[in-house]
Every structure is written in C-alpha cells, then in structure tokens.
Amino acid sequence: MRKATVGTTGSLLLASGLVLSASVPAAAAPTAPADRIFRGEDSSDRAPDCTEAKCVALTFDDGPGEYTDELLDVLDEHDAKATFYVLGSKIGKFEDTVERMAEDGHEVGNHTWDHEDLATLSADQIKDDLERTDRAIADVTGEKPATMRPPYGSLSDTAREAIHHPILLWDVDTLDWQHRDSDKILDITLDETDQGSVVLFHDIHESSVDAIPDVLDELADQDYEFVTVTDLFEDDLEPGTAYSDARPKQ
Predict the structure, then answer these.
(1) Closest to 144 in 3D by CA, of 134, 130, 131
(2) Annotated catalytic, 202?
(3) pTM of the predicted model as reported, rounded to 2 decimal places
(4) Which of 61, 171, 173, 245 is an active site residue?
(5) Which of 106, 202, 203, 205 is labelled catalytic?
(6) Is 210 in the active site?
(7) What is the pLDDT of residues 115-165, one digit of tens each?
C-alpha cells in the first residue's frame, strides 16, 4: 500500500507548496439521508490501479471560469481525468460547466464559497461556508464533494477540527497564478512531478489552460495516467486529515 504524505505541525501551506500544517483528525463526516458523495461519474470503472500504474492527479483551483470549458475539451481529447476545486459563489454563473465536469467523470471538490482564509474564521463560520458550498455543488451534480482544499492552503487547528472532509493540498505548485507563463508551467510540472503527485493549477488563467495540452502530452509520454484525487488515494482518505501526495513509500 502506498503511503500518502500528510502535513507537519503548524498553520499554513505556503504558495510554494511547502506544508506547514498538521493532520488533526476531526469527527467523522456527518451523513444525511439521500446525500451522495461526489467521486466522478463512473470514475471507479475507468480509473487505473494506482498501486500498479504511474498515476498523477491534476487539480484546478478557483474556478469555474471563462476558460474551464476549453480545458474540459482538452482533457476529453486526452481521455484524462482531473479534479476541480470550485468556489461556490461561481457555480450559479457556470452551472452547465460544473454539470459537465461531473458528467465527464472529473471530480468536483469544495474550495469554499468565496476563497476566504479559513485560518481567520471561527469553527461555525467554516462549517457554514463549507456546507453552503457543498449544497451548491450537490444542487448541480447531484452529489456532495468528497474532498476540499483550503484557499492558500491555509489552516489552523480550529479549521482542521471544523472541516469534515479530507483535505487535499499538493506537492507540485506550478505558481501559474504568479507568473502566467505557459512555458514555465510546463517546465515546473515536468521537473517536479513524480508518481503519486498532486499538481496545482488554476483554470481561471488562460495561460494555465494553454499549458495543459503540452502537460498532458509530455506526461503521457512518460507513461503517466491522469486520475482524480480520490482515485489516486484509492479512497484511503480520512476527514480532517491533510494530504499533499500519494507518492510510493520509500
């Protein structure tokens, strides 16, 4: 069994992707009648066995946006699955796009309602924010998200205890939001990606979406399989625990 990497004690995950926050198990996620957890349409039928295959999870934050449908086209052309950490406040404007994510077999995750720093909020504020976003996603996809990603990777002990989702961070930060350079995005991805990596992009930037065809081609040439985060971790995820990658244990 591969070992997922979790954070160490602290309160913040910096833009570089360095994990400075720890996994503090939270109470088991509440269950509600007729609620389903989102894992991607038929993802279990399509996903490779990541204990055998060379898997990587491409993840996209802060959308959906005006370039997301173009990205979905590219992913479809490459038969690649990805995970989208969406903002609840944007779903109303892009309902068709979010619905398409689910129909195409991608995973839709919770990235809060409007990108507030969870380390600055109370437990009740965090719960309300995530539940509101869960409902907005479920209203479109029919399923609640299985995982969440905190904006900026920022967490506190209060946040960890209040979050009733597995927390998905990353081990490869393309810094695409900063330099907006498609060539740099490709270079960073190729230099830093390894089996079991979780790679961070933002589909709200045109330069990021423009980089993805080459990212997919180059990584495919290295025999990578593109899977959702829950397929990468094979559902071995605990609520309130933060994960940055599923690289094989050395």
Answers:
(1) 134
(2) yes
(3) 0.85
(4) 61
(5) 202
(6) no
(7) 999 999 999 999 999 999 999 999 999 999 999 999 999 999 999 999 999
